[in-house]
Amino acid sequence: MSKSFGAMTVAQLSVLIQGGAADPVDVAEAVFDAIANYADKAVFTTLLEDRAMEEARASSGRLRQGRSLGLLDGIPIAWKDLFDIEGVTTTAGSVVLAGDAPAERDAAVVDLLGNAGMIAIGRTNMSEFAFSGLGINPHYGTPVNPRSSDRPRIPGGSSSGAGVAVAAGLVPVAMGTDTGGSVRIPAALNGIVGYKATRGRHAMDGVYPLAKSLDSLGPLCRTVKDAVWIDAAMRGLTAPAVAERRLQGQELLVPENIVFDGAEPGVVVAFEAALERLQRAGVRVLRITIPAFDAIIDLLTTYGPLVTAEAYALHQERLSGPEADRMDHRVVLRTRLGARTTAPHYMSILEARRRLIADVDRLVGDRLIAFPTVAHVAPPIAPLEQDDELFFATNNKTLRNTMFGNFLDWCGVSVPCGTGEAGMPVGLLLSATARRDEALLGAALAAESIIRGDFA
Fold it and tell me: Which one of the listed residues 148, 158, 414, 431 is annotated catalytic?
């Protein structure tokens, strides 16, 4: 049984630990053994074995004394290499930060989940500075999608190692960040669940930024229930408060513009099959046009992406110095495009964003939105590494659907809904407007098994 601890859901493992059938020390040791024996060494950038075993022993002692901290006590978690861990340098997937001073304290959410008894296993690999939806990293290696059966395929990014660590059964949950899809994309491509919270729902202290107007947090895990439990602890709650919502009569909006453009046939088939199952369960599916999607594309074309402008402002000094030569050249090229967005252009983007959010909020109301998380399955790694033009085109397409949610301040959950080309996973993205996380998660709890169908 010990070999499968990392492949369990958080809820399954919690039952064993809280019931005394599994000891947190044994669980942590088994997780480190699994990581050591896993062939792909690009999943983690840092392992925290000393800290983890100390935390596991403390958890074990509490449980023996009947002083459990709650459902998450003793559960292992991995952290994306953007979250400060006390005594460890936060490298953000880049070698240029490797010589920086270690963090003086844990990031706020690391501290909160530590207070819930979770065991910090290590830090996972990522796209450099979180600036790609593909997950390719020339410095620390690119984690291979564990669902690949024909040839090595991308993990999705930027939370690449987080997605692979969960999908490969190394840990039950890993924490990611999402600025344009960086939780939901690897979740979809690896066949797991990824929850992107409304921006501002969770504390960002101690999290290395990409674009503060868009950055949000969320877990990658195996079930929506796991995401609900982790979300509660990230907000300092002792128990989750999200209730499963009734699906009968729930209205689900499916956009007809943009999100299906160039979609692979297998992705469309899997998505439509999931919609049919939801309709049989009583969900009302309404196909509509969301004009804001076209308006956002026009804004990107006219002024440049908001994320690129803010990333350039963050890294401007680095890009003009010798550090740029040590960075992934594709990250450098893409970030430098932010110089084209002038201050008046930036203000125009923000004003248009406020207007579009208000327009979409009125259009959507208390309904949910659904479309494919990514319009294609995970492509092979090698061609993307060899061809910059293909890299940028694929990156743009990979981020296209999810970035709408970031721009419009939505929350979203990607749930596996089937498979496409080469048996690779397809994700269905459920979204809701800002600060409707409880409604979204409640509906996702009820809909998850229907959306999944036969997907294991």
Answer: 158
